[in-house]
């Protein structure tokens, strides 16, 4: 097929031609394009020169198509109509893409913290179409292009920080009442008669700051393993046993009393943070940034309320827990 650019001096002349033919008037076409009538006439004259035949019969009543003009009008009307439909479709798709926000978050975080706030979040951002990409266990990197993802890292100066990485053993109030809490400095009391809920992705040493070294190997308690952290928190809430609670996941449950600290010592602050980040090229989209700030504000409210429990974080020092940090465990 011959390239149109080699046949027509300017594609604009086709747009002008279609408008004149549709209106049957050079004057009305000039108003549509907001140009003078002589400019319309020059465009038509150039197009007629390109195709080699007259396209209009000009008269006092307006512009009437010639037989050749009718052939060209049928083609331009159909072609431009299809182009217009395609442009409208692309605009609609672009609008949908602009309003869609992809969140790559842990299943546990969404189930235990964000889920209770989704209605408020939707009300705050009615234009946002949320798509959740949920992660079951440990995450060490974010795959693909998403608008917001959580990742536990060292803090950076430009990070959007959702929460510090603070860990505390948690259980249901009923479990605490029937089994008692764990007391620092009393290893026998720490382990005997308890059921512990462990995320299989994590190294066993993750419990060392609370239970001492090799706690899982000593057989002084029941250990249940899970591949999904959300299932662990649900089991703890149901009274099955004690779980390690990441504060960004369990803050809402601690605030409401569905979970309580099972550890009577200071909570552990690893010195790292749960960061909200975008993996799309370029700066974070404005809508995604607004949602990130909203999430941070809601989390700050929970953390402030949890602080009233009287317990708080304690940064890990040189201890058996150091190997945990080196293994880069994380649950967002």
UniProtKB/TrEMBL annotation:
The keyword Secreted does not apply. GO terms for biological process: DNA-templated transcription. Keywords: DNA-binding, Transcription, Transcription regulation. It comes from the Bacteria. One of its GO terms (molecular function) is DNA-binding transcription factor activity. The keyword Ligase does not apply. PROSITE patterns: HTH_LYSR. Residues 9-66 form the HTH lysR-type domain. InterPro entries: LysR-type_TF_proteobact-type, LysR_HTH_N, LysR_subst-bd, WH-like_DNA-bd_sf, WH_DNA-bd_sf. Transmembrane segments: none annotated. PANTHER family: HTH-TYPE TRANSCRIPTIONAL REGULATOR, HTH-TYPE TRANSCRIPTIONAL REGULATOR TRPI. This is HTH lysR-type domain-containing protein.
């Amino acid at each position: 097929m011959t390239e149109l650019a080699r046949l027509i001096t300017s594609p604009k002349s086709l747009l002008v031609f279609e408008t004149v033919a549709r209106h049957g008037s050079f004057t009305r076409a000039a108003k549509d394009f907001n140009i003078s009538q002589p400019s319309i006439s020059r465009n038509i004259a150039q197009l007629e020169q390109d195709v080699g035949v007259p396209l209009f019969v000009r008269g006092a009543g307006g512009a009437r198509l010639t037989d050749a003009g009718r052939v060209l009008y049928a083609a331009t009307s159909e072609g431009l109509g299809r182009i217009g439909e395609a442009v409208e479709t692309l605009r609609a798709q672009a609008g949908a893409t602009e309003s869609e926000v992809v969140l790559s978050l842990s299943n546990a975080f969404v189930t235990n913290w964000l889920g209770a706030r989704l209605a408020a979040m939707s009300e705050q951002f009615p234009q946002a179409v949320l798509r959740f990409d949920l992660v079951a266990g440990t995450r060490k990197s974010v795959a693909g292009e998403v608008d917001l993802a959580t990742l536990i890292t060292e803090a950076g100066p430009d990070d959007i920080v959702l929460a510090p990485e603070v860990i505390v053993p948690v259980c249901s109030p009923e479990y605490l009442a029937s089994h008692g809490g764990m007391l620092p400095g009393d290893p026998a009391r720490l382990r005997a008669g308890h059921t512990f809920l462990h995320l299989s992705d994590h190294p066993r040493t993750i419990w060392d700051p609370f239970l001492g070294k090799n706690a899982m190997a000593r057989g002084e308690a029941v250990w249940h393993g899970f591949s999904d952290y959300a299932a662990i928190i649900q089991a703890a809430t149901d009274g099955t046993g004690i779980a390690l609670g990441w504060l960004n996941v369990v803050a809402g449950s601690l605030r409401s009393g569905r979970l309580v600290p099972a550890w009577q010592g200071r909570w552990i602050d690893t010195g790292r943070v749960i960061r909200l980040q975008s993996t799309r090229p370029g700066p974070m989209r404005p809508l995604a940034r607004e949602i990130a700030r909203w999430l941070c504000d809601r989390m700050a409210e929970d953390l402030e309320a949890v602080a009233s429990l009287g317990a708080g974080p304690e940064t890990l020092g040189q201890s058996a827990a150091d190997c945990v940090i080196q293994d880069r465990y994380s649950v967002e």
